[in-house]
Amino acid sequence: MATFVISKKLSGHYKYELTSRRGKTIFISNAFELRFECEDEIELLKKSIEKLFFMRFRSPAGKFYFKIILNDKELAVSRKYSTQLMLEKGINEILKYGAKAEYLDFSKSEDIFPPAEDVFG
């Protein structure tokens, strides 16, 4: 099952990404000023999976990637794929699991791990 992951960039803006069942990033969203904007766009994306348009590209280095378009608005850009087949598998994963994907919010806490003093004494 794929998972949406919300995180905070060093700039203070928020983003979300969809990760595959194996933990690989499929795509990364544009930046948002507020966290709830990420949640709203994730819900919109989940409800509109069948309306998404995938623009396929090839980079000058020969890698393949896509942009996700909904209602003439670019929502996200995929990671770079080494083959066109892998790109299509990424798109299929979105279509198959995107509507059912849960989301994790890692933007609330700066420190995921407790301080070393608490762990090691």
From TrEMBL:
SUPFAM superfamilies: YegP-like. InterPro entries: YegP-like_sf. It comes from the Bacteria. This is DUF1508 domain-containing protein. It comes from Flavobacterium terrigena. The lineage of its organism: Bacteria, Pseudomonadati, Bacteroidota, Flavobacteriia, Flavobacteriales.
